[in-house]
Amino acid sequence: MNKHYDVGAFIWPAYQDDPRARIFWPQGMGEWQSVMSNTPKFAGHDQPRRPLWGYQNEADPYVMEMQIAAAADHGVNVFIYDWYWYDRRPFLENCLNNGFLKAQNNHRMKFCLMWANHDAVTVWDKRLSDQGEQLVWHGSVDRHEFERACLRVIRQYFDHPSYYRIDGKPVFQLYDLDTLIRGLGGPDAAADALDWFRNAAVKAGHAGLHLQAILRRHMEFNVTGITGDNVGTQQEIIEKLGFDGLTHYQFCHFTSIDDDYEAIVERVVDEWQRVAADFSIPYFPHVSVGWDNNPRFQRFRPGIVKNNTPKNFAKALQHAKRFVDMNPNQTPFVTLNSWNEWTETSYLQPDDKYGYGYLEAVKRVFG
Questions:
Q1: Considering the entire predicted model, what is its pTM?
Q2: CA of 279: how far to CAs of 14, 347, 365, in Å?
Q3: Where does residue 136 rank: exposed (0-12), middle (13-18), buried (19+ CB within 10 A)?
Q4: Whether pLDDT at 233 is above 90
Q5: Superfamily for 6-366?
C-alpha cells in the first residue's frame, strides 16, 4: 500500500483585484501587472516567464476549480494561503474567500493559513521598488488587534471541512516571530497571546491548535530596537511560545541562493538535519522551486538560483520524502514554495519554459 504524504504549497494571493492593493498594482489585475511587464535584466537572463494558463483571476471560483484539479491530480493536496492583516482589517483575502472556498471541488484539497505578518513595503510597487523599501503598513499588531484577527480566522475558516488539521487540530503558521513579539510587547506577552488563541480555538469546538513557526537561519530576537538588546535565540523563543511544529518558507531565508540548485539543496538537507537535532518538536521539510525576484524591479537584483530544472527539483523532493520517512512519528507533511510566486520565480504552475514539469515532478515523487 502506498504511503500518504501531505504536500502543501504556499499561495501568494495577489493574482486578483483587491481594491486596497491598487496602490501597488493600479491596473486592477493584482501582481500580474508586474509579471506582464517583466523583461530580462542582462544578456542570458532567463526571463521573462509566462504562465501557460494565462493571467488568471484566482479569486474566480471557476479558475480555482481548474487549479484545484491540477494540483490534486499531481499530488499537491494542501494549499497554504499567505494571510494578511493590515491597518485593522484583512488584505488579499478574495483569492481564498471568493476563489477556493467557492470552488465546487474544494473537497479535493485541504487548505490552511500562514499569517504573513511582515510589514507591507513598496517592494510590491514596481514604480518604487528600486528606491528602497518604504513602509506602507505595519505588520505588527497589539493584543486587541491580535485577538480580532484570530477570532476572524477561527470563525471564518477553522470550521470548514477542508481546513487542514494535524492530530485533529487546525494548522496555523506564523511568518515573522520578531514582528509578532514586538507588537504584543515581548516574549511573555506573546506567549500569553498564543495561549489565548489556543483556548479560543478550543472554546469554538476544536481539539486545539497546531501552531507552526516559519524558521530563518540564526535569528536573534530584538524587540526593543536597541542594538544588542536581544531577548533570546530562535530556539529559546520558539520553546517559550510553545509551537507544535516548524518549517521554512523559502530557501533564501536560510542559505545563499546565488548558486547552482543542486549545491543549494545539499546545504538545505544539512539544515533540515540541524533543525531536527536542535528542536524537540517536528520539523516539516521545505523545498523551494527557485528564486529570482527581478520581475519586481526595473533594475537588476543579484541573487538568482541556477539550474533549477524539474529534474533537479524532483531530486530535492526525493530528499524531502526520505526525511519524512526517517521521521515516522510525525505527520508526513512537506511544504513547497510555491504554487504561484511568479515575481519571485518560484512556482509550480505551468509556464512557457518547462510546461507542467514542476507539477509532474511532484506527481512522480509523491503522487
A1: 0.97
A2: 34, 29, 27
A3: middle
A4: no
A5: Glycosidases (3.20.20.80)
